Amino acid sequence: MSEVAVSDETLMSAVAEGDIEAFEQLFLRYQTAAWSVAYRYCSDATEAEDLVSDTFLRILDAAPRYRPTATFRTYFYRVLTRRCIDFARKKRPQPTDTLPPVHAPGLSQAESAIQRERNQLIQDALEQLSQKHRLVIVLRYFEGLSNIVIAEILQTSPKSIERMLARARKRLEPLLHSLLEEE
Fold it and tell me: CB–CB of 88/127 below 8 Å?
């Protein structure tokens, strides 16, 4: 199967029939996004890796029951966000001391330090939000998903997502005041 030409839904159907190469393609397509969401949610690289692994294992296990009633992308994020919420219920996320280093080519050492400090401020602010508010912020602003897609993932209305985003932004504004002044 050509990775570019094959849709996620077709790959998932192939996975349901036991095609491990199709699963590998799905994994390669979604692993970075999955880790990003999980890390932004739980602030721990090891826990994020565990959440991602568990998400992909659940998707593999559920492949025979998968029905493309929504896009695979929506299905994937729904499984991932449920795993994040379950994680939070079982164990209160512990803030990390540092974020993984930023590997931005072309940045000077001073610019990299500023970027790391900025990322830490953002991560600290995200940790002050409720579980749902943190998820909608991560999905909207870090993953670039639309309110409609987020509503499908969280099984709510787009209007509800708009309200959650507004509340989350209102809560984040004083926490990120210093960053907002720089811009």
Answer: no
Q: By the 8 A CB rule, do 139 and 37 touch?
A: yes
Predicted model pTM = 0.70
35 pLDDT above the threshold of 90: yes
HSE value, Cβ hemisphere, 13 Å, CA-based, for 89? 7
CA distance readout (Å), 49 to 35, 174, 175: 7, 31, 28
Q: Yes or no: is domain 8-182 CATH 1.10.1740.10?
A: yes
The per-residue pLDDT for range 55-82, each reduced to its tens digit, is: 999 999 999 998 888 789 999 999 999 9
- Domain-wise residue ranges, the chain: 8-182
User: What integer pLDDT is reported at residue 20 of this predicted model?
Assistant: 93
In sequence order, what E strands does 20-170 have? none
Residue of 31, 80, 86, 26 lying closest to 58 (CA atoms): 80
- What is the distance between the terminal CA atoms of the chain, rounded to a whole angstrom? 46
Lowest-confidence region among 16-20, 66-70, 144-148, 152-156: 66-70
105-144: b (≥16 Cβ within 10 Å) or e: eeeeeeeeeeeeebeeebbebbbebeebbbbbbbbbeebe
